[in-house]
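I hope you will forgive my troubling you with a question about protein structure. The record follows directly beneath this note:
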Amino acid sequence: MEQRILENIPFNVDRGTLFETYHIEEGSDDSKRIDQLIAEAEKIAKPKAIYKLSTIDEKTENTVIIDQTKFTSRVLRVNLDEVHRAFPFIVTCGMELEEWSLIITDMMEQFWVDSIKEQAALQAYQAVQSELEDRYRLGMTSTMNPGSLEDWPMKEQVALFSLFGDPKKLIGVTLTDSFLMVPIKSVSGVIFPTNSKFESCQLCPRKNCPGRRAPYDPGLGESKYSFGNK
């Protein structure tokens, strides 16, 4: 099916968010240094993304086959219950930012740079979402990512990466032996149209999670995904 690479993604650091997150005062030495880092990052950054339009070939109780590749996840299977197509993707801050970040030795500056890389990966993801809406008019969508739930573990990254052939050659992203992505600030997953918004956070009981996007719903696992009936 159709595969698209997005390389010319504009990148602008959200300076206000950085200053708020790290409690940086205007005019301080920290503000001057972080502005230098922002300028450097915006000059060299090349966030990238790849996605493809994929068909849902087959569904069983706990698996789904996408473009002849099997994924094992009860949650993914149920979420794709009434879906005939999905959009696997990989987005990244890019090796340019990754390599630049490695020369930063100050511990505090490493935190700042880490957040800058996160913003680059996020803007790459937003570019994918924007293009999907423009090209396919999907309406409401949700996203699932390998490793975000125990039900869909990190090792499923291997199957997802196989859908794209050679992501390293295409956008510079590789998998380690422990299924982590390099550059670290990269995200992979499946975007799919839905009538009911889903966030993996709804099934995760972890408390005090800084990245939580939705409240934990303790009854959802049993009522929708039949976890209690296993």
Summary: The mean pLDDT is 93. Helices lie at 15-21, 29-44, 74-79, 95-101, 107-136, 157-162, 167-171, 220-225. Residues 199-230 form one domain. The beta strands are 3-6, 48-52, 54-59, 63-66, 69-72, 85-92, 141-144, 174-175, 181-182, 186-193.
